[in-house]
Amino acid sequence: MENPLLLFPQLNISASKDKAYYKVMKSATKEEPPKASKPGTKQKRNRLSLLLQKPEFHEGDHLGKPGNLTKAASVSPEEAVKWGESFDKLLSEKAGLDAFTKFLKTEFSEENIEFWIACEDYKKSRSAHELLPKAKTIFETFIQKDAPKEVNLDFHTKEVTSQSIGQPLRSSFDAAQSTVYRLMEQDSYPRFLRSAPYLSLLQGRGPACAPLRRRSRSFTVSDFQGARPRFGAW
């Protein structure tokens, strides 16, 4: 019986083409470099985190590190005594601000001091161009309903602040900052002066570890309506 490839030469041609095609494909498969995996989509960072990470924002890293309390060696009893003279004096001292921030963290109310610091940074903006993104960040982080670090503001103050966000001024957060300042001054500050870490500093010892407290809500904004704010030279 004759070879079918001789009788049908087109079969031989087709087979040759298939072999050539297979050879080329096999070679290409071996030589083709592996495709690089697509980088995963980066999650958007919380704009507050970016704000807090800026050196000009907190000037000394008051926030972030839970153990960042004033070292006993850097604070004398005489300095600690001055913190008790007024809330303004406490906040004007970097070491005092650090110690007070640490204290608020033990009470789970550190959003108050973080908001106050954010407002201080906001008022230092050098141009109107900087105000809008900072204003939106502060509003979305501390003031709007269900904000991640919502502070305790009365309805009127929140509404006035909300209306100014579209075209913010350096004074846009003054009313809200004043309210939070009074809350800290008349509620948290007296407890800080009675706390174990502060009393230890007065006695020249290292700051003691204060026991954790539940978030204090013993005072509300309405308790301080009409109280006169006492600010330092801002």
TrEMBL record:
Classification via InterPro entries: RGS, RGS_sf, RGS_subdom1/3, RGS_subdomain_2
Keywords: Signal transduction inhibitor
Domain of life: Eukaryota
GO annotation, biological process: negative regulation of signal transduction
Region (Disordered): 26-45
One Pfam family linked to the record: RGS
Residue ranges constituting the RGS domain according to the UniProt record: 86-202
SUPFAM superfamilies: Regulator of G-protein signaling, RGS
UniProt xrefs under PANTHER family: REGULATOR OF G PROTEIN SIGNALING (PTHR10845), REGULATOR OF G-PROTEIN SIGNALING 18 (PTHR10845:SF155)
UniProt protein name: RGS18 protein
Species, as recorded: Melanocharis versteri (Fan-tailed berrypecker)
